[in-house]
């Protein structure tokens, strides 16, 4: 495979914190995609070297390496939260985490930076695809997976999840995207959209705007849709790009309303603190 990477910068609502191993924690992060669209749900790992205390629900600006969820992923699922593996869209490792005030508006789409080889090009729709190979801890293949020890609140069931991680699973750890060229003069030359050629290496940035299902009637997600903001053409990759994820099984469900999560983008933010105190008596997470 060619050298590639996938990094997002985004605002996110964190909850369901639990211990992974050592000082590492895993959080369920909701990421806004737009009005009327279900938010992305990511299981994000954060190394808590400063031993900071986290509220039941917290709001953050983050930069994280990300990949698409895969069956058997190591995310320390807990039955008490009601979350299942197929509720998630992404897994990742948080590189930078900056706390935000409770009244901060986090309804902004995630910004993604991807380097990778162009897997396919569609001139009719002005789109191209990239399968970016990005290592994340939850998808490592060495068999050393996260524990299921909870660190949230006494109400969390400490028993292993009924969807416990499979230490023998072989993961691809890939971020598949479909990139859309905007319909503006900036991206047009001689009346045609400027598109990269297949098997060329590119670096792109843009906003994740949606998820693309496997088919019009499918409930499983195939790719993340990105509206291009910038693109750099880097020529041919140093090695073959034949390793693709087109046949990789996908478990995330498109359109999941995330009813099991406490935070809701459509609910008034002022009610957040009252709900947390009522449910948990003001207890915190470390």
Question: In words, what does this structure look like?
Answer:
This protein has 286 residues and is mainly β. The protein has 1 helix and 12 strands, in the order ββββββββββββα. A hairpin with a 7-residue loop joins β11 and β12 (221-233). The longest helix is centred in the last third of the chain and has 9 residues, at 272-280. Strands 1, 2, 3, 4, 5, 6, 7, 8, 11 and 12 form a 10-stranded mixed beta sheet that branches. It has a two-stranded antiparallel sheet with strand order 9-10. The protein has one helix at residues 272-280; strands at residues 5-21, 24-31, 40-47, 57-68, 90-99, 111-122, 127-133, 174-180, 188-189, 192-193, 201-213, 221-233.
Radius of gyration: 19 Å
For the biggest sheet, the summary is:
10 strands, mixed
Q: Give the quaternary arrangement of the chains.
A: single chain
Number of strands: 12
Mean pLDDT: 79
Number of helices: 1
CA-to-CA gap between the ends?
A: 39 Å
Helix content: under 10%
Unreliable stretches (pLDDT < 50, length at least 5) are 143-167, 240-250
Q: Could you say which overall geometry the principal axes of the C-alpha atoms support?
A: globular
In summary, what is this structure?
With 286 residues, the protein is mainly beta.
